[in-house]
Amino acid sequence: MNNQDWKILDQLSRHLTITKAAENMQLSQSTITKRLKQMEADFDVRIVYRGKKGIHFTPEGEYLAQSARAILKEVEVMKDTLWNMEEEVRGTIKIAVSNFLTSFMIFDVIGAFKETYPEVDFQITTGWSRDMYERLRNDEVHVSFIRGDYQWRGRKHLLFEETLCIASEKPIPLPELPAAPRIDYQKDAKLDGMIRKWWDENFIDVPRISMVLDKAESCREMIRNGLGYSIVTSLVVRNMEDIHKTELKDRDGKRITRGSWMFCQEKSMDLKAVRKFVEFVESYNLSRP
């Protein structure tokens, strides 16, 4: 058994498919299968059964997968501790980033940070904000970048605030909004709830949703081509000077906004690389979307 074998068990237990595990580890499926058979021979137990929809762990396999996760964590702690003893800032920072923030800011931030600290590496996970938040809560990453207001007692930093707005090719009078074709896209539950709340406070009729897209970027192009309006955050329609934007306001006339945050586990700040990165982001100049 080597470190890669433990990683294979960990990935298989997380995804329950050889295809996904191989993809995440950048290995061939045949390599995963070969190593799995070798592990079964070494331990003289059946680790998994193959089914039509993936793999199923045996009780012995479940035990080995849990042990693999613990061993990988211990190796990670040892590496962090050793790197923390050195004068040079080095190590691997694990971050979780919401999908949209990945394209908007994170690569610029990491690029700027690595100019000063080239020996620091990153493991980046992307997805919905709620999932990135849970990864931090479960101690799977050091730092999370998320959109929306989540409860967090650890270290946190407000990156910027976005305004919710109605975006359309031409101005649409508010009373005419329910009859106008609306373009929706898949978004996180918190943002969807904010939009629903505003709509219910202003209209009796349900919106006329003409299409639902999987990405905000596609929504931008549909708006640009005059195929309808959408209710989005200002970040989605940034740099679109040809698009009309009407800010949403609550009953008190205040702009409806939501923040994007950096959250960090307090204990992770004991790691030199993480501490330097968090402090770097806190001082990094991010202009308001």
Automatic annotation (TrEMBL):
PROSITE patterns: HTH_LYSR (PS50931)
InterPro entries on file: LysR_HTH_N (IPR000847), LysR_subst-bd (IPR005119), WH-like_DNA-bd_sf (IPR036388), WH_DNA-bd_sf (IPR036390)
GO MF entry, a single one: DNA-binding transcription factor activity
A Pfam short name: HTH_1
SUPFAM superfamilies, A to Z: Periplasmic binding protein-like II (SSF53850), Winged helix' DNA-binding domain (SSF46785)
Keyword annotations of the record: DNA-binding, Transcription, Transcription regulation
Residues of the HTH lysR-type domain: 1-58
Lineage top rank: taxon: Bacteria
UniProt KW Chaperone keyword: no
Protein family according to the UniProt entry: Belongs to the LysR transcriptional regulatory family.
Entry protein name: CysJI operon transcriptional activator
Gene expressing this chain: cysL_4
